[in-house]
Amino acid sequence: MTEVPAPDGLSEPASGMGACALLISQLPPAAAAFFFATKLGDLDALVATFVDNAPVNDQLRDNRGKEATTSWAARDVIGERLTLGVHHK
Fold first, then answer.
1. What's this model's pTM, rounded to 2 decimal places?
2. How far apart are CA 1 and CA 71, in angstroms?
């Protein structure tokens, strides 16, 4: 299988993700960057996928801004080892 490079800004390649990396790479760039960063556990790259004042609503909690987004991502995405998947029809 061809290795799919991670989007710019990620610290690691997408190797080891198999077919999932291929499907993720076919998403719009911002969505692909979010998926890769989450799967790699790369907090900085994950936070970089959000604009500075992006509203993030998760589990009925609102977060807005880089500081709140970073705290949420560290706790609920990276800290909880969130698992994401892409399904192809």
1. 0.69
2. 36
Q: Mean pLDDT score of the chain, rounded to an integer?
A: 78
Most confident option among 4-8, 9-13, 23-27, 73-77:
73-77
Alpha-carbon span 25 to 59, nearest angstrom:
27
Q: Report the alpha-carbon distance of residue 89 to residue 74 in Å, rounded.
A: 32
- Beta-carbon neighbour count of residue 5 at 10 Å? 13
Joined tokens for residue 80? 């909880």
SS (H, E, C) 28-81: CHHHHHHHHHHHHCCHHHHHCCCCCCCEEEECCEEEECHHHHHHHHHHHHHCCC
